[in-house]
Amino acid sequence: MGTNILAIYFSTAFKDPVIIVVVLVLAVLSILSWAIFFQKYFQLTTVKNKEEAIYRLIEKGSSKDRIIEEADGDTPFGVFVRLLNTIKFKEPKDIIESCELVARRNYSWGLSILASAGSVSPFVGLLGTVWGIVKAFHSIGLQGSASLAVVAPGISEALVNTALGLFVAIPAVFFYNYVNGRIEDILEKFRAYSIIFLNMEDRK
Q: pLDDT tens digits for the chain (204 residues)?
Protein backbone atom coordinates (compact mmCIF):
# COMPACT_ATOMS: atom_id res chain seq x y z
CA MET A 1 0.00 0.00 0.00
CA GLY A 2 2.75 2.43 0.98
CA THR A 3 4.63 1.57 -2.19
CA ASN A 4 1.54 2.27 -4.27
CA ILE A 5 1.04 5.66 -2.63
CA LEU A 6 4.66 6.63 -3.28
CA ALA A 7 4.44 5.39 -6.85
CA ILE A 8 1.33 7.49 -7.46
CA TYR A 9 2.91 10.46 -5.69
CA PHE A 10 6.12 10.46 -7.73
CA SER A 11 4.23 9.82 -10.95
CA THR A 12 2.26 13.04 -10.43
CA ALA A 13 4.63 15.14 -8.29
CA PHE A 14 6.96 16.15 -11.07
CA LYS A 15 4.10 17.57 -13.07
CA ASP A 16 3.67 20.37 -10.51
CA PRO A 17 6.44 23.03 -10.21
CA VAL A 18 5.67 23.71 -6.53
CA ILE A 19 5.97 20.03 -5.57
CA ILE A 20 9.15 19.76 -7.64
CA VAL A 21 10.68 22.58 -5.59
CA VAL A 22 9.51 20.98 -2.33
CA VAL A 23 11.00 17.59 -3.22
CA LEU A 24 14.28 19.11 -4.42
CA VAL A 25 14.68 21.24 -1.28
CA LEU A 26 14.03 18.24 0.94
CA ALA A 27 16.42 16.11 -1.09
CA VAL A 28 19.20 18.72 -0.78
CA LEU A 29 18.65 19.11 2.97
CA SER A 30 18.69 15.35 3.44
CA ILE A 31 21.90 14.88 1.46
CA LEU A 32 23.60 17.72 3.35
CA SER A 33 22.49 16.31 6.71
CA TRP A 34 23.86 12.84 6.03
CA ALA A 35 27.08 14.16 4.48
CA ILE A 36 27.77 16.48 7.41
CA PHE A 37 26.97 13.75 9.92
CA PHE A 38 29.43 11.27 8.42
CA GLN A 39 32.12 13.95 8.04
CA LYS A 40 31.73 15.06 11.67
CA TYR A 41 31.53 11.47 12.91
CA PHE A 42 34.87 10.49 11.37
CA GLN A 43 36.49 13.82 12.28
CA LEU A 44 35.44 13.68 15.93
CA THR A 45 36.23 9.98 16.25
CA THR A 46 39.78 10.62 15.01
CA VAL A 47 40.23 13.55 17.39
CA LYS A 48 38.85 11.59 20.34
CA ASN A 49 41.14 8.61 19.71
CA LYS A 50 44.21 10.86 19.49
CA GLU A 51 43.27 12.76 22.63
CA GLU A 52 42.47 9.59 24.60
CA ALA A 53 45.96 8.26 23.83
CA ILE A 54 47.48 11.40 25.36
CA TYR A 55 45.17 11.30 28.37
CA ARG A 56 46.26 7.73 29.10
CA LEU A 57 49.86 8.95 29.21
CA ILE A 58 48.88 11.66 31.67
CA GLU A 59 47.06 9.13 33.85
CA LYS A 60 50.14 6.89 33.82
CA GLY A 61 52.28 9.82 35.01
CA SER A 62 54.44 10.03 31.88
CA SER A 63 56.96 12.83 31.64
CA LYS A 64 56.08 16.20 30.22
CA ASP A 65 58.47 15.72 27.30
CA ARG A 66 56.88 12.37 26.40
CA ILE A 67 53.39 13.87 26.48
CA ILE A 68 54.41 16.82 24.31
CA GLU A 69 56.15 14.50 21.87
CA GLU A 70 53.08 12.30 21.48
CA ALA A 71 50.54 15.15 21.28
CA ASP A 72 49.06 15.64 17.80
CA GLY A 73 49.12 19.25 16.62
CA ASP A 74 45.66 19.05 15.06
CA THR A 75 43.85 18.20 18.29
CA PRO A 76 42.90 20.67 21.05
CA PHE A 77 45.52 19.24 23.41
CA GLY A 78 48.15 19.26 20.66
CA VAL A 79 47.52 22.94 19.94
CA PHE A 80 47.54 23.62 23.68
CA VAL A 81 51.00 22.15 24.37
CA ARG A 82 52.43 23.81 21.25
CA LEU A 83 51.19 27.24 22.31
CA LEU A 84 52.30 26.61 25.85
CA ASN A 85 55.88 26.25 24.64
CA THR A 86 55.90 29.05 22.06
CA ILE A 87 53.77 31.85 23.55
CA LYS A 88 54.25 33.37 26.98
CA PHE A 89 50.80 34.00 28.47
CA LYS A 90 50.43 35.96 31.71
CA GLU A 91 48.08 33.24 32.87
CA PRO A 92 48.70 29.78 31.32
CA LYS A 93 45.06 28.80 31.82
CA ASP A 94 44.14 31.46 29.26
CA ILE A 95 45.64 29.13 26.64
CA ILE A 96 43.07 26.49 27.58
CA GLU A 97 40.19 28.87 26.95
CA SER A 98 41.70 30.05 23.66
CA CYS A 99 42.24 26.49 22.40
CA GLU A 100 38.75 25.52 23.48
CA LEU A 101 37.20 28.43 21.58
CA VAL A 102 39.17 27.64 18.43
CA ALA A 103 38.34 23.92 18.63
CA ARG A 104 34.66 24.61 19.24
CA ARG A 105 34.55 26.85 16.18
CA ASN A 106 36.30 24.26 14.01
CA TYR A 107 34.27 21.28 15.16
CA SER A 108 30.94 23.13 15.11
CA TRP A 109 31.10 23.74 11.38
CA GLY A 110 27.99 22.27 9.80
CA LEU A 111 25.88 22.23 12.96
CA SER A 112 23.92 25.26 11.77
CA ILE A 113 23.02 23.36 8.59
CA LEU A 114 21.82 20.38 10.63
CA ALA A 115 19.78 22.69 12.85
CA SER A 116 18.27 24.41 9.82
CA ALA A 117 17.42 21.08 8.18
CA GLY A 118 15.78 19.85 11.36
CA SER A 119 13.65 22.96 11.80
CA VAL A 120 12.89 23.88 8.18
CA SER A 121 12.15 20.46 6.65
CA PRO A 122 8.77 19.92 8.38
CA PHE A 123 7.59 23.33 7.16
CA VAL A 124 8.76 22.61 3.62
CA GLY A 125 6.84 19.33 3.73
CA LEU A 126 3.82 21.12 5.18
CA LEU A 127 3.95 23.62 2.33
CA GLY A 128 3.74 20.73 -0.12
CA THR A 129 0.85 19.25 1.84
CA VAL A 130 -1.13 22.49 1.91
CA TRP A 131 -0.52 22.96 -1.80
CA GLY A 132 -1.63 19.39 -2.50
CA ILE A 133 -4.82 19.82 -0.44
CA VAL A 134 -5.64 23.04 -2.28
CA LYS A 135 -5.24 21.16 -5.57
CA ALA A 136 -7.38 18.29 -4.28
CA PHE A 137 -10.25 20.58 -3.31
CA HIS A 138 -9.93 22.44 -6.59
CA SER A 139 -10.27 19.10 -8.39
CA ILE A 140 -13.34 18.30 -6.27
CA GLY A 141 -14.91 21.58 -7.32
CA LEU A 142 -14.26 20.90 -10.98
CA GLN A 143 -15.70 17.37 -10.78
CA GLY A 144 -18.64 18.44 -8.63
CA SER A 145 -18.26 15.44 -6.35
CA ALA A 146 -17.00 15.14 -2.73
CA SER A 147 -17.07 11.34 -2.51
CA LEU A 148 -14.28 9.47 -0.73
CA ALA A 149 -13.07 8.04 -4.03
CA VAL A 150 -12.49 11.57 -5.30
CA VAL A 151 -11.11 13.14 -2.11
CA ALA A 152 -8.90 10.37 -0.70
CA PRO A 153 -6.25 10.07 -3.48
CA GLY A 154 -5.51 13.81 -3.54
CA ILE A 155 -5.35 14.11 0.26
CA SER A 156 -3.12 11.04 0.64
CA GLU A 157 -0.73 12.31 -2.01
CA ALA A 158 -0.63 15.70 -0.29
CA LEU A 159 0.19 14.15 3.10
CA VAL A 160 3.18 12.36 1.58
CA ASN A 161 4.90 15.76 1.53
CA THR A 162 4.58 16.06 5.31
CA ALA A 163 5.96 12.54 5.72
CA LEU A 164 8.94 13.38 3.49
CA GLY A 165 9.61 16.50 5.54
CA LEU A 166 9.63 14.45 8.75
CA PHE A 167 11.90 11.82 7.20
CA VAL A 168 14.42 14.60 6.59
CA ALA A 169 13.92 16.47 9.87
CA ILE A 170 14.10 13.56 12.33
CA PRO A 171 17.60 12.35 11.33
CA ALA A 172 18.84 15.95 11.10
CA VAL A 173 17.75 16.69 14.69
CA PHE A 174 19.31 13.44 15.90
CA PHE A 175 22.56 14.21 14.05
CA TYR A 176 22.68 17.72 15.54
CA ASN A 177 22.25 16.50 19.11
CA TYR A 178 24.67 13.62 18.63
CA VAL A 179 27.45 15.73 17.10
CA ASN A 180 26.97 18.55 19.59
CA GLY A 181 27.18 16.06 22.46
CA ARG A 182 30.42 14.57 21.14
CA ILE A 183 31.96 18.03 20.74
CA GLU A 184 31.09 18.91 24.33
CA ASP A 185 32.53 15.60 25.54
CA ILE A 186 35.82 16.20 23.72
CA LEU A 187 36.14 19.77 25.00
CA GLU A 188 35.25 18.90 28.60
CA LYS A 189 37.93 16.20 28.70
CA PHE A 190 40.41 18.56 27.06
CA ARG A 191 39.79 21.21 29.72
CA ALA A 192 40.10 18.69 32.55
CA TYR A 193 43.31 17.04 31.33
CA SER A 194 44.98 20.29 30.28
CA ILE A 195 44.50 21.61 33.82
CA ILE A 196 46.05 18.39 35.15
CA PHE A 197 48.95 18.87 32.74
CA LEU A 198 49.50 22.42 34.01
CA ASN A 199 49.55 21.17 37.57
CA MET A 200 52.08 18.52 36.58
CA GLU A 201 54.24 21.29 35.14
CA ASP A 202 53.99 23.31 38.32
CA ARG A 203 55.39 20.42 40.33
CA LYS A 204 58.47 20.08 38.13
A: 545 555 556 566 667 788 888 889 999 999 999 999 999 999 999 999 999 999 999 988 888 888 888 887 789 998 888 888 777 767 777 888 888 998 999 999 999 999 999 999 999 999 888 877 777 776 666 665 555 555 555 676 777 888 899 999 999 999 999 999 999 999 999 999 998 888 875 444
**Could you give the CA distance from residue 190 to residue 186 in angstroms, rounded to a whole number?**
6
Closest CA to 55 of 201, 203, 195: 195
Question: Do the beta carbons of residue 169 and residue 121 sit within 8 Å?
Answer: yes
Q: What is the 3-state secondary structure (H, E, C) of 119-149?
A: HHHHHHHHHHHHHHHHHHHHHHHHHCCCCHH
Residues 6+ apart with CB under 8 A from 55: 77, 189, 193
